[in-house]
Design a protein that fits this description.
The radius of gyration is 22 Å and the shape is globular. The longest helix has 18 residues. With 444 residues, it is an alpha/beta fold. The protein contains 17 helices and 15 strands. Helix 3 runs antiparallel to helix 14 and helix 6 packs across helix 13. Helix content is 37%, strand content 16%. The structure holds pyridoxal-5'-phosphate. This is Beta-alanine--pyruvate transaminase.
Length: 444
């Protein structure tokens, strides 16, 4: 097929850009036009190394023929079909394929798959399943969900309620939720390599919230096993195990939000596998289709699924679903994506690169403004000291500088977050680190 060409000077007024300072961006836009492997090409023809896998989603790198061909084939065979009281084979095939790689492996039992269209939809779906499950087993007073400060669980009303990022919350009303403290502790854990040593006691916050609200009001607790969007916050050693134990003690479901950590980011198929802690529900999206077609999925344990498969057989068990749940084109993209991951060993490749990645990132210690460096699998964060009275501006300047030098990074506040495609080569790791290092030396 011919490549599509666009004008490189589009009218910028109409697209209301998400999570973007629209006026600032439109005054000096950064426009990407093509992508292949580890690189974007911008509208002026410059190559840009992708240090962020798009937006934590293009795990197998860009322009994968197997995926694009599967999408083309499916589009011309059957563009859309409903999944409400109807089905099509590819949705079942994809669910079975995902189940074969389910978080926690065959013993984990997380092999019942509910399809959504995004991470936000996966989160709201998981919260609703948790509440519905509790009611179905006679625990109907359990409607509260516990999240965590600095958590990011997308932008639905459920997701912002359990999320812990103030800018996403302050304007909007929320569902009943409460929050544990976050686990970022730069004072005690700065420059840890991998999991930080201090902070397991923060899991006891769940005990405190049970004492405050009563276990009989709490349906579930949701955490990102590793928080990405808030700036790469790692769980202290033993923390997730402790959380699992407390949740079990009180009949509270544990939900891992693996929208970022799913599909190989930490060097195992899921963070659930990395930590060996098995939750009751796992939310995913992003890497599920290598970012090509919007899609998400919730993995539910058999306990949760079977708990809801009760009542008369002609009764809908869960009044929930999306027009695009199990969209055939998304399923085709997902199936081909899983094949690429399998053929190239990408669900575990990050484990081979993790120590080189760690050493490369930590070589930036001592450069101007750097107050912490964090890493796990193929994720990294470089936290900068904020400028007096102008938080976020220093990292933003580094971001623009890196882009102009041919590297895409992501910044959140004054934290640089990195999550390259899992096909990255060692030389490209060096390029990422040296480009950031040079930008830090230039940064005021
Ligand atoms: C942990 C987590 N949950 C949910 C979401 C929301 O996903 P989406 O933007 O696809 O709605 C994200 C997005 O970055 C995420 O990182």
């Amino acid at each position: 097929m011919d490549k599509i060409t666009h004008t490189n000077t589009p009218v910028l007024d109409n697209f209301w850009m998400p999570f973007t300072a629209n006026r600032q961006f439109k005054a000096a836009p950064r426009l990407l036009a093509a992508a292949e492997g580890m690189y974007y090409t911008d509208v002026d023809g410059n190559k840009v190394l992708d240090g962020t896998a798009g937006l934590w989603c293009v795990n197998a790198g860009h322009g994968r023929k197997k995926i694009t061909q599967a999408v083309e084939r499916q589009l011309s065979t059957m563009d859309f079909a409903p999944t409400f009281q109807m089905g099509h084979p590819i949705a079942f095939d994809f669910a079975a394929k995902l189940a074969a790689h389910a978080p926690g492996g065959p013993k984990g039992g997380l092999d019942r798959v509910f399809f959504t269209g995004s991470g936000s939809e996966s989160v709201d779906t998981a919260l609703k399943i948790a509440i519905a499950y509790q009611r179905a087993i006679g625990q109907g007073t359990r409607t509260r969900i516990i999240g965590r400060e600095k958590g990011y669980h997308g932008v639905g009303f459920g997701g912002i309620s359990v999320g812990g990022l103030v800018n996403n919350r302050r304007v909007f009303p929320q569902i009943p939720a409460d929050h544990m403290r976050h686990t970022l502790d730069v004072e005690r854990n700065a420059f840890s390599k991998g999991l930080p040593a201090h902070g397991i006691e923060l899991a006891e916050d769940l005990e405190r919230l049970v004492a405050l609200h009563g276990a009989e009001t709490i349906a579930a607790v949701i955490v990102e096993p590793m928080s990405g969007s808030a700036g790469v916050i790692l769980p202290p050693k033993g923390y997730l195990e402790r959380l699992r134990a407390i949740a079990d003690k009180y009949g509270i479901l544990l939900i891992f939000d693996e929208v970022i950590t799913g599909f190989g980011r930490l060097g195992t198929p899921f963070a659930t596998d990395y930590f060996g802690v098995v939750p009751d529900l796992v939310t995913t999206a992003k890497g599920i289709t290598n970012g090509t077609i919007p899609m998400g999925a919730v993995f539910a344990s058999r306990k949760v699924y079977d708990g809801l498969m009760t009542g008369p057989e002609n009764q809908i068990e869960l009044f929930h679903g999306y027009t695009y749940s199990g969209h055939p084109v998304a399923c085709a993209a997902g199936l081909a994506t899983m094949e690429v991951y399998e053929e190239e060993g990408l669900l575990t490749r990050a484990s081979e690169l993790a120590s080189d990645w760690e050493n490369a990132l930590h070589s930036l210690k001592g450069l101007p403004h750097v107050v912490d460096i964090r890493n796990l699998g193929l994720v990294g964060a470089i936290e900068l000291a904020p400028r007096d009275g102008a938080p976020g501006t220093r990292a933003y300047d580094v971001f623009v500088d890196c882009f102009n030098k041919g590297l895409l990074i992501r910044v959140t506040g004054d934290i640089i977050a990195l999550s390259p495609p899992l096909i990255i080569e060692r030389a490209q790791i060096e390029t990422i680190v040296s480009t950031i290092g040079d930008a830090l030396k230039r940064a005021a």
